[in-house]
Automatic annotation (TrEMBL):
Protein name per the record: beta-glucosidase
Pfam families per the UniProt record, alphabetical: Calx-beta (PF03160), CBM_11 (PF03425), Glyco_hydro_3 (PF00933), Glyco_hydro_3_C (PF01915)
Lineage: Bacteria, Bacillati, Actinomycetota, Actinomycetes, Kitasatosporales
Catalytic reaction(s) noted: Hydrolysis of terminal, non-reducing beta-D-glucosyl residues with release of beta-D-glucose
Organism annotation: Streptomyces lutosisoli
Family assignment from sequence similarity: Belongs to the glycosyl hydrolase 3 family.
Secretion signal span: 1-24
Length: 1003
């Protein structure tokens, strides 16, 4: 039966047979949503269906359609059992391939619930707008199970509120339109083992005009210069855009606020009438004129009170704001320090506390909270995006937030932050660079800077002035789920790649930060996050991330702290501490959370290193400090944190901070220092003069020029580990058989932190897969993902295998992950490499264990996570560019070797740190004679300080030694070989060649 016919027939049947319910004479017949008679299957998007969900598989309820003689309607009801520790529930989504449903003619939604009198609340949500049920806004309410037996729960649509703690796409318009509905969801109680029964979900009643019609203003805030006038547009709108049935009146009056009537503005009062039949969207205007005097003043507000009859009033009262004027901090010609000092001297404690508070944009109860709580910052967490996810939508969203900040006394602009860790990775269509592990493999500081410049340009063009990057972690254990966020295991390599800071920020002085293609950078995670001990994490099921770094003072300084001194010297504007704990052996403190370590943040970072930017916490990280919430706030702020990322707790944090200062447990001088640091960067960014998005660079987002940089980075990041018989580069004349899970998957090759926090397989964004790149290169390519197609008749095979996306501790080895290829990948490698010469590319965030198959593989490439430009990988495969990448981390033989790093006493890897064969480059001949000559050249470079000559000599020596070592790598050769690369990076060129000579002689 067609769905429309089913709705009509069941509506009539329900009206005749269902238990009597009060219904007005002119109410429409109820319209069923779910009868639970089997008309809606158990299925999920894109098909219509009912499906379960939960924080893990154990939290998903068990559902069934059960015949019940006491069913309120029909023969069956939906029954379920549950035992939820995290969260769990079920959803009915309408088919994504069909138009959304229009519920706007009805008063609300109702259903029968079999009460158990548990006293527990059950949340009920409806899904409004967007592309489908899993990309829509969630509007929520709840009911209490305080009854026994069947009861019909009626929920008027007016009872639903916008969810602020979670939105799958971060919000569309935050207006419950009811014309594009995608279904409903039920969230079951937590912490009790229970069962439920539900029946007959239906729409009921007739929507009155006050639900269908609403009065809106074109803005909530109208900043004007003193003496200017603001024009407020008042409009009436209806769901479905139908004309209004009854008149709507809007009485308006300027009243309240901080501006003085008659002195600061001319009062207004009147009434607007929209007659019956007025078209949806019709507008009228009210003008508010301000008066000019000669006084220097902070901003003053003029609320325009609206009293609406016949429609829903605006969610908040619009405000005209007379801009602050004449105050020293507004004078861009004054020295920065004077501007900061003047502004801080004028601020109240409450305003200062607001500046130290950062909230997640989707967590705002209302946008007006920005002014109400004087918020200093908002952020988008991974995947927290506007809808649609376009550059224009980002700029519009952030401008709307900035407008709210104009309603504060001193109109201090927000600083908006985002994790753009390998390009503007939250934005669909942005240029996605290789992750840092691949950038480290390039050994190209100039290229690292260029990738940072592209990222900054694309981020700032969407209105975002602040990037939570780069990660300066030194990865010491590849079981860590954040390994790929590191440039490598050697602090010298990490330091060499910090040119990316200049790409992001520009000049070390910060003079370029105000430009439309630069952003404030963040060095993270201070300090030691890459050195956490396996098994030490106490965060959920994580095994290593957010765990404990156990080091001597000397190890801490040499490995984990040294990159931060470089960042400070490069003018980094902000620093983010690590979730992890630091245990300095011998200091008697034991493990202490980094967010609580005043000795490290105040003592080392700010005092000893001279960091003059501000310190921002990680996401809700202060909650991990032992103690109650007041203690968390007190400890972290006193430890040196200047701004606290409290995604959903911004109200509680601000209140607690104020209370702690008033109680004397946090000094006012500490608060003044924190606020001064934050304001300094806001002034440097030019936000006081230009708070809104400069989108002049938006056309370059994802442009050919930007993608060319990413393509070059992808090419240079490829590390050729083995190349028996010169299988690579490929020739265009060869017939090539391509297989493997990662050959044609843009999501897998971009990895985590791509569009969403964890990333995802599949076509998550625009770009070129490795397979597409090979085809574009002109190769004669046949593709069979699982290698099921016949393998005869080919010259060479290319098997692209590796990991699927993950981020942070979710990717920890032992947390559902290992370093082995999947069974399908192994099968593809085995089948192709048995049939023909083969090259295996490993697309992953860390080394994969390949030793058991290495003998059967002719060529092996560490492709890392190359980003959106698969053409770059094809460039080296087909010889357009040479393979030049070098391992940024040691490639282990087995997981039992981990952690294994350059400089270890015992060192026997599959491939050593710094290893990387080359193509298209002539390797020097002459053996020890040539090495002696290169050693002399390196000694001269040491004496004269000629870094370019020293690097050239070491590179030639490395190629010579690599050629001899081939695949016969032993501890006596790998250890000095790896040490040589470290010595090169630290500028010890003669010593590097001496180490390489040692490896050569041991071969």
């Amino acid at each position: 039966m067609p769905r429309t016919a089913l709705l009509v027939s069941t509506a009539l049947l329900a009206a005749l047979l269902s238990p009597a319910v009060s219904q007005a004479a002119d109410d429409p017949a109820p319209v069923p949503v779910d009868r639970f008679e089997g008309e809606v299957p158990f299925a999920s998007q894109p098909a219509e269906g009912i499906f379960t969900w939960g924080s893990d598989n154990d939290d998903r309820p068990q559902l069934a359609l059960t015949a019940r003689s006491d069913a309120p309607e029909g023969a069956n009801v939906l029954t379920g059992t549950y035992d939820i520790s995290g969260y769990g529930g079920f959803t009915h989504d309408f088919a994504a391939g069909q138009p959304a449903h229009d519920w706007s003619a009805h008063k609300g939604i109702r259903f029968w619930w079999d009460g158990r009198n548990t006293g527990k609340k059950t949340a009920f949500e409806i899904k409004d707008g967007g592309a489908n049920g899993e990309a829509s806004e969630l509007w929520t309410t709840s009911f209490t199970d305080d009854f026994s037996g069947w009861k019909q729960i009626e929920i008027p649509f007016t009872d639903f509120t916008y969810r602020t703690d979670y939105q799958p796409v971060g919000g569309i318009d935050q207006v419950l339109g009811l014309t594009g509905m995608w279904g409903y969801a039920v969230t079951l109680p937590v912490g009790v083992k229970g069962q439920f029964a539900m029946d007959d979900v239906e729409l009921y009643g007739k929507a009155d005009q006050s639900l269908r019609a609403s009065v809106r203003t074109d803005s909530a805030v109208y900043p004007v210069k003193e003496g200017g006038a603001a024009t407020v547009w008042v409009s009436v709108a209806t769901t479905g855009s139908a004309p209004i049935d009854e008149p709507v009146t809007v009485a308006y009056e300027s009243a309240g606020g901080t501006a003085e009537s008659g002195k600061d503005y001319t009062p207004v009062k009147g009434e607007i009438t929209f007659p019956a039949g007025t078209a949806s969207g019709a507008s009228r205007t009210v003008q508010v004129s301000t008066l000019k005097d000669k006084s220097a003043e902070p901003a003053e507000t003029i609320p325009l009170k609206l009293t609406v009859t016949g429609a829903k009033a605006p969610a908040e009262t619009p405000q005209v704001v007379i801009d602050a004027h004449g105050l020293p901090y507004l004078d861009a010609k004054l020295p920065l320090r004077k501007r900061v000092a003047d502004l801080v001297s004028r601020m109240s404690l409450e305003e200062k506390a607001g500046q130290m508070t950062q909230a997640e944009r989707g967590a705002l109860t209302a946008q007006g909270d920005i002014a109400t709580y004087d918020l200093g910052s908002l952020l988008s967490g991974g995947g927290s995006t506007p809808t649609p996810n376009t550059p224009a939508a980002w700029a519009k969203m952030i401008d709307a937030f900035q407008l709210r900040a104009q309603a504060t006394r001193f109109q201090i602009p927000l600083i908006y932050g985002v994790d753009a860790v390998h390009g503007h990775n939250n934005l669909t269509g942005a240029t996605i660079m290789p992750h840092n592990i691949g950038i480290g493999a390039t050994r190209d500081p100039r290229l690292a800077e260029r990738t940072g410049a592209v990222t900054a340009s694309e981020v700032r063009a969407t209105g975002i002035p602040w990037d939570f990057a780069p990660c300066l972690c030194v990865t010491r254990d590849e079981r860590w789920g954040r390994s790929y966020e590191s440039f490598g295991e050697d602090p010298a390599l990490v330091k060499s790649m910090e040119t990316i800071i200049q790409g992001l920020q520009g000049a070390r002085s910060g003079k370029d930060l105000k430009d439309d293609d630069k952003v404030l950078a963040t060095a993270k995670h201070f300090a030691g996050d890459g050195g956490t001990e396996y098994g030490s994490s106490t965060t959920g099921s994580y095994t290593i991330d957010q765990g404990i770094t156990k080091v001597t003072r000397e190890q801490l300084e040499a490995i984990h702290l040294s990159p931060y001194q470089t960042a400070v010297d490069r003018g980094i504007g902000s620093v983010m501490p690590s979730y992890s704990s630091l245990d300095i052996l011998g200091d008697g403190q034991g493990p202490v959370k980094m967010h609580a370590r005043a000795d490290m943040i105040n003592g080392v970072l700010k005092d000893r290193m001279g960091f003059d930017g501000f310190v921002i916490s990680d996401w809700a990280a202060i909650d991990q400090i032992p103690g109650d919430y007041a203690s968390d706030v007190r400890t972290s702020v006193n430890a040196g944190l200047d701004m606290i990322m409290v995604p959903y707790a911004y109200k509680d944090f601000r209140t607690t901070l104020i209370d702690e200062v008033k109680a004397g447990r946090i000094s006012e001088s500490r608060v003044n220092d924190a606020v001064s640091r934050i304001l300094t960067q806001k002034f440097k960014l030019g936000l006081f003069e230009k708070p809104y998005a400069d989108t002049s660079g938006a056309a370059a987002i994802g442009s050919p020029a930007h993608r060319a940089v990413a393509r070059e980075a992808a090419a240079e990041s490829q590390v050729l580990l083995k190349n028996t018989g010169g299988v690579l580069p490929l020739k265009k004349s060869q017939k090539v058989y391509v297989a493997g899970s990662n050959a044609d998957d843009i999501g897998n090759q971009t990895g985590g932190w791509t569009v969403t926090w964890q990333g995802a397989s599949g076509p998550v964004t625009q770009g070129t897969t490795i397979l597409e790149g090979m085809r574009s290169a002109g190769g004669d390519v046949t593709y069979s993902k699982d290698a099921s197609a016949p393998t005869s008749g080919y010259d060479v095979g290319v098997v692209v295998v590796g990991e699927t996306p993950y981020a942070e501790g979710v990717g920890d080895v032992g947390n559902g992950n290992d370093l082995e290829l999947t069974a399908a990948d192994k099968e593809a490698v085995d089948k192709v490499c048995a049939a023909m010469k083969c090259a295996v590319l490993i697309v992953s965030g860390r080394p994969q264990l390949i030793g058991d198959r290495l003998a059967g593989i002719d060529a092996l490439v560490a492709s890392w996570l190359p980003g959106t430009e698969g053409d770059g990988v094809a460039d080296v495969l087909y010889g357009k560019r040479a393979f030049t990448g070098q391992l940024p981390v040691t490639w282990p033989k087995s997981e039992s070797q981990l952690p294994i790093n350059v400089g270890d006493t015992s060192y026997d890897p599959q491939f050593p740190y710094g290893w990387g064969l080359t193509t298209l480059t002539k390797v020097p001949a002459g053996g020890t004679v040539t090495l002696k000559a290169l050693a002399l050249a390196a000694e001269a470079a040491d004496r004269t300080g000629s870094a370019e000559a020293g690097r050239a000599a070491v590179t030639q020596a490395r190629l010579l030694v690599q050629q001899k070592l081939g695949q016969t790598l032993t501890p006596t050769t790998t250890k000095p070989f790896a040490n040589a690369d470290h010595l090169l990076l630290t500028g010890h060129y003669a010593s590097a060649i001496a180490s390489l000579t040692e490896a050569y002689r041991a071969a």
